[in-house]
From TrEMBL:
The gene is ZW10. Residues 177-415 form the Centromere/kinetochore protein zw10 middle domain. The keyword Magnesium does not apply. This is Centromere/kinetochore protein zw10 homolog. It holds the Pfam family Zw10_N. Residues 544-698 form the ZW10 C-terminal helical domain. GO terms for biological process: cell division; endoplasmic reticulum to Golgi vesicle-mediated transport; establishment of mitotic spindle orientation; Golgi organization; mitotic metaphase chromosome alignment; mitotic spindle assembly checkpoint signaling; protein localization to kinetochore; protein transport. Belongs to the ZW10 family.
Amino acid sequence: MASFVTEVLAHSGRLEKEDLGTRISRLTRRVEEIKGEVCNMISKKYSEFLPSMQSAQGLITQVDKLSEDIDLLKSRIESEVRRDLHVSTGEFTDLKQQLERDSVVLCLLKQLQEFSTAIEEYNCALTEKKYVTGAQRLEEAQKCLKLLKSRKCFDLKILKSLSMELTIQKQNILYHLGEEWQKLIVWKFPPSKDTSSLESYLQTELHLYIEQLHKEEKTPMPPISSVLLAFSVLGELHSKLKSFGQMLLKYILRPLASCPSLHAVIESQPNIVIIRFESIMTNLEYPSPSEVFTKIRLVLEVLQKQLLDFPLDTDLENEKTSTVPLAEMLGDMIWEDLSECLIKNCLVYSIPTNSSKLQQYEEIIQSTEEFENALKEMRFLKGDTTDLLKYARNINSHFANKKCQDVIVAARNLMTSEIHNTVKAVQLFYSVRNIFHLFHDVVPTYHKENLQKLPQLAAIHHNNCMYIAHHLLTLGHQFRLRLAPILCDGTATFVDLVPGFRRLGTECFLAQMRAQKGELLERLSSARNFSNMDDEENYSAASKAVRQVLHQLKRLGIVWQDVLPVNIYCKAMGTLLNTAISEVIGKITALEDISTDDGDRLYSLCKTVMDEGPQVFAPLSEESKNKKYQEEVPVYVPKWMPFKELMMMLQASLQEIGDRWADGKGPLAAAFSSSEVKALIRALFQNTERRAAVLAKIK
């Protein structure tokens, strides 16, 4: 009885598997038929452009029915596989794989269906001027096409047709959006080509249409927000805003910043806001910063309210609205040019020429801060202080620059004037000499402490003294013919002051050099004479001393960079590095016993100096140009080659040392005396016959 039941159940399982196989085969054939029909329909619709809406709807129904059948079969197969896994795993697996292949094909057909639906909905939205919806449908079609392209098994001709259709429709909606933009944002310019005159500015207007009614066509117009949002969905908002920002800067903001008499006028009419100019008479040659800030702020407030104050829906898939400040986007595009324009046409002319007026400049700094804060509230600006406010706050530097410029202009006017030739210059001549005497006596005394402590100031003072001395050589001769007759007999000279100024600059810089040398030697004194390097504490102290010396030299090189002339810089740094190397050489050659470990560690310390020493030669701020001077270290550091020979001896054998001595003619003999070499050999090597033989050769 049990065997009969088993036989019946087995026969039933085979029937079910055979039934599943038959149904899947039938489904596969049906999927292929529908695939062919869909491809044919897509080809006709997008390649041959034949109307096929009715057949497409029928195909959609068939695809949905097939999808339901496949899902039902898939769940049934999974349950059958789990139940009869030990009997027919292979058969059911094959059936499932075939079904999955059919599912992939069906998925592609669904993507084609979604693409077609998205295009149809896009066309309807475009007809109704629902540009945001149309742009969203195009993006959905783009996603479908991207997924289809990722499948390698699809017909390339159909994909090409779909891509072409998508491109055409995108350009079509961009054209319509451009037309709407030109209706909503209208620029009116003067008929003349000259757009930089006051008359042309007064004929320039910007019209912002803020309602839907268009007077000529009597048809509703989409709001500005809808057009901008559609541009955003299509990824074209940035370029559109950039173009608008450049025109805004050129035709409205820049004229307001450069013309004192020009003022912005805002006219509000039904459905429209107009920005235009009017001219008000003024005696100002250059515009006042506070007035310019007020005028520009007025224009930006109107734009922020009428054009830029709405959120952008950037997350289409999840339908979440995230506020993207359009004002900030526009501000990023135009702020750099606008701030540069405000500085050149406005702030630069507000810098006082008299120190008594510096206090009044605080009002301009305050108005600049208020202007930036207002722009930040409107979201045009983000972050911290910008270049505009930094420029306004840096009044001391600008005042000094302007004072120098005014002096130069006054001097030029004086030199080009004919009347100054008739003025007696005796008193002026002696006043000039007194000024030089005053500099010679006062500056080194008043700034004595800083000149001793700060190497950069010492270098600048050295430069000043040498510069003055250079010009004193020719100053008297240069103006001799313009002086009074009493001064033209050879007494009109400043040459006698030259030695004093040269000595003044040299003594100051040499005093700084002596101070730096003292610091270097003091740091090296903590190296414990470089003895017993096998002791970790001694080695750590020596390594620290070497690092401190190199750090001091590098820091000094940066401080003197672009201050000292290159030749003076290299000589000074070479002298200081030579001092440090000479001290190291002296300490090592004085050692009486150097073990193998000591030699290795001393070599490591010397190699650090050898590798990093050239880096202190950086006379120019551009790193690539310093390589030339770093390769010429032996020219500026006399002990550089002896230092290399010392490193060689710390690692060399007796034979190598003897070869480099070469009977007093080798490189070792050029670097060290015979007594120094013998002392090093005795410290490095044990007393053997070989050592005695080498010592005998060194004479």
